[in-house]
Design brief:
Length: 218
């Protein structure tokens, strides 16, 4: 588990669906407190309540600042279940950058996922439209605008149905389940910090996949 008193402590946490990326909430909704009891760690960035996946919690204010600095382009990879099946043109638009209301997105990596990612079922199932198939894409971004992934997929005609952040820099969800956390070891913390440099092109991250019988959206 590591030394939980370490001043450089960093936790990787699988934020479940319907959990806020905060430790308190005046409305009594589910928060990080329901899962993480380690003192003096705070989220480096956030995931929306309806999004799932990797959240880093750090004790170092400096590290949290670097992880959320818009000028630092460390890759963040998302597995995104979308409505419909994207064309190559749609993927190319996602990769090249899109004009959103708060500015143009940086170049990204956008690719179809063949098969279904090996992810736990969401406690609240996605909405299903019998006449419209769904599919999965992998997006690797180097920025974090508000609800950026959802706005990007909507802009190319494929609304997001489910969103799971798989990795931040060198840190992934591998080995965790929703609601579980684990402290990074010294080498993992070093690799994470080494990736916090100037903006750069996104790098591919490959979460595990589970093969399945072909469907029309694959």
């Amino acid at each position: 588990m590591g030394d939980l008193g370490d001043p450089d402590l960093v936790l990787r946490f699988w934020k479940p669906y319907d959990c806020l990326s905060a430790f308190t909430d005046r409305e009594g909704r589910t928060t990080l407190t329901d899962y993480v009891s380690v003192p003096n760690v705070y989220a480096a960035g956030r995931l929306d309540r309806d999004s799932e996946g990797l959240l880093l919690l750090a004790r170092s204010k400096t590290l949290r600042g670097r992880l959320t600095d818009a000028a630092i382009g460390h890759p963040r990879t998302y597995l995104v279940q979308i409505e419909g099946v994207p064309s190559q043109q749609a993927l190319d638009r996602l990769a090249a950058g899109l004009d959103l209301k708060d500015g143009r997105t940086r170049p990204a990596i956008a690719e179809r996922v063949e098969g279904t990612p090996d992810l736990p079922a969401r406690p609240v199932p996605i909405r299903v439209r019998k006449t419209v198939p769904d599919s999965w894409v992998r997006l690797t971004l180097t920025e974090g605008k508000n609800r950026q992934v959802r706005r990007m997929t909507a802009a190319v005609g494929h609304p997001t149905l489910r969103l799971v952040r798989w990795s931040i820099g060198s840190v992934t969800l591998d080995g965790l389940v929703p609601g579980e956390w684990q402290a990074l070891n010294a080498n993992e913390r070093r690799d994470l910090r080494a990736g916090l440099r100037a903006p750069r092109a996104a790098s591919r991250s490959d979460p595990p996949r589970r093969a399945r019988a072909p469907r029309s959206q694959c």
